[in-house]
Amino acid sequence: MSFLEYAPAPESRAILNLRDEYGLFIDGEFRPGRGESFATISPADEKHIATIATASEADVDAAVAAARRAHDKTWSKMSGRDRGKYLFRIARLVQERARELAVAESLDNGKPIKESRDVDVPLVAAWFFYYAGWADKLDYAGLGPNPRALGVAGQVIPWNFPLLMLAWKIAPALAAGNTVVIKPAETTPLSALIFAEILQQADLPPGVVNIVTGAGATGAALVRHPDVNKVAFTGSTPVGREIAKAVAGTDKKLTLELGGKAANIVFEDAPIDQAIEGIVNGIFFNQGHVCCAGSRLLVQESIHDEVVDRLKSRLSTLRLGDPLDKNTDIGAINSREQLDRIRELSRIGEEEGAERWSADCVIPDSGFWFAPTIFTNVQASHRIARDEIFGPVLSVLTFRTPAEAIEKANNTPYGLSAGIWTDKGSRILAVADRLRAGVIWANTFNRFDPSSPFGGYKESGYGREGGRHGLLAYLKGAAA
Ligand code: NAP
Ligand code: MG
Fold first, then answer.
1. Closest ligand to residue 456's CA
2. Choice among 11, 100, 105, 291 that is catalytic
3. How far is the CA of 10 from the centre of ligand 1 (A)?
């Protein structure tokens, strides 16, 4: 036991006003689903939270029909200024109910409350505020002579940032005048359903946003629906590929935000204290369930031992446990399936000869947990250096020269993000220029802002979300 222990500081669940059962949100109201309903659980203790409806193909059809009616009769007829007012109203309601949303998100997803409270939910509000400001300015932003909405957007999102991914999808779509049918991930539908209540509170016209819960089949029915004009997907590269095939040959517009295997490059002249914090934030934030996570640490050989030693001592101070405790740094892994995948890839890492070190933390008896882990002696050919693990596992590789760092960083089928740590501004620019990644952070990592476009190269997908670029994906006749 260390000298100063932390007393438990759990955030109260009393602020939640959950229903036992949630229906689908179609045409402004909740209604039962025709598929077989399922339970959403807390990954921290495997306890039941609520029963959730599954949207069948017929339900998806009803949701798309509601979105079409709302688009043709209401939303596309409304002025940009009026659309903006609704978006501002939603943003303010998210702020008002921020604590409730953060508790729900941590409960359903397993992420630490300090992250949902200080990162996810504030960014959700920021995204709606930002795109609210765009709604009445589309004609003046160099988006082409007559930028118009595409129509109905079908959107499918993953479980790692449930409410934030919803905001990334819905805010630009509505600002541009589209209506939406969105499918949250099966393991994390809760915050989207509370968001549906916020839409009712905001008096958003019925059908402008429809939320259809369910598993992969519901998502597939949505992206295949013939009356959807735009498909936006965030998730894994294999499912992204399937969706690209399903959409090929139709006139649907498509954006794909897929996986990543980002390099976080630390040069010997980097400010080491900051770099250590940045490496930790890069891969252990949100249990490493981050598409742009800095999962490959490329460290200059001369400082390798120092960096690894300091990382180990820093990781030994991280607190793993109850996601609702305000002191928790590492929460629960989102699902048993994801935990099995992390375990399997880590086992392969050891088998292939990399050296494994895991922080010595107490793992709770129930729920899904994985201690922060570092692999050293990793070769570029190892699975743990190539595959996206999507968990709290860092693979450490070394380099000697900037050219070698760049070559190793780009040696991946992905291209979503990268990080550079160095004291020299000129080196930041020279290296960034040669990295094939959509987002590059310098002397920081995992920073997000609604005005900054985000998206990938290669197998990380195409299209950009955020900023003015994020509007292009939702407009007809828009010029980049
Ligand atoms: P996933 O299995 O691809 O699932 C993503 C979403 O697609 C879920 O809602 C899923 O439903 C649904 N889905 C599954 N099969 C489908 C199909 N055939 N047609 C349509 N929808 C389908 O990915 P995940 O495991 O949830 O998320 C992790 C992945 O997302 C990682 O690879 C990560 O890198 C990526 N990601 C990327 C970004 C980015 O911006 N680039 C951001 C976050 C995450 P169910 O969940 O109900 O099965
Ligand atoms: Mg859950």
1. 1
2. 291
3. 30
Cα of 398 vs centre of ligand 1, distance in Å, is: 31
Bridge partners (DSSP) of residue 440 are 418
CB 286 within 8 A of CB 111: yes
Q: Whose CA is nearest to atom 42 of ligand 1?
A: 291
Q: Report the chain (480 residues): mean pLDDT per 10 consecutive residues.
A: 80 97 98 98 98 98 98 97 98 98 98 98 98 96 90 98 98 98 98 98 98 98 98 97 97 96 98 98 98 98 98 97 98 98 98 98 96 97 97 98 98 97 98 98 98 96 95 81
Both structure tokens of 69: 């009616």
In degrees and rounded to multiples of 5, residue 390 shows phi and psi of 60, 45
Residues 6+ apart with CB under 8 A from 403: none
Tell me the one-letter amino acid at 218: T
Backbone angles phi, psi at 166, to 5 degrees: -60, -45
Strands 179-183 and 209-211: parallel
Distance 227 CA to ligand 2 centre (A): 31
Annotated catalytic residue, options 115, 257, 388, 459: 257
The pLDDT value recorded for residue 3 is 65
| Under 8 Å between Cβ of 113 and 103 | yes
Nearest-5° Cα angle at 176, 171 to 177: 100
Helix, strand and coil percent figures for the chain, each rounded to 5: 40, 20, 40
CA quadruple 46, 50, 56, 61: dihedral sign: negative
Which residue's entry shows tokens 């250590």? 276
Q: CA 30 to CA 10: how far, in whole Å? A: 32
- Is 291 among the residues known to form the active site? yes
Largest CA distance in the chain: 67
Measured CA to CA, the distance from residue 106 to residue 382 in angstroms comes to: 33
Q: Closest ligand 1 atom, CA of 338?
A: 25
Residue by residue, DSSP assigns 421-458 as: E-S-HHHHHHHHHH---SEEEES--S---TTS-B--SG
DSSP letter string, 119-188? IIHHHHHHHHHHHHHHTT-GGGTTS-SS-EE-SEEEEE--SSSHHHHHHHHHHHHHHTT-EEEEE--TT-
Indicate the pTM of the whole model. 0.97
Structure tokens at 465: 């979300």
Supply φ then ψ for residue 418, to 5 degrees.
-160, 160
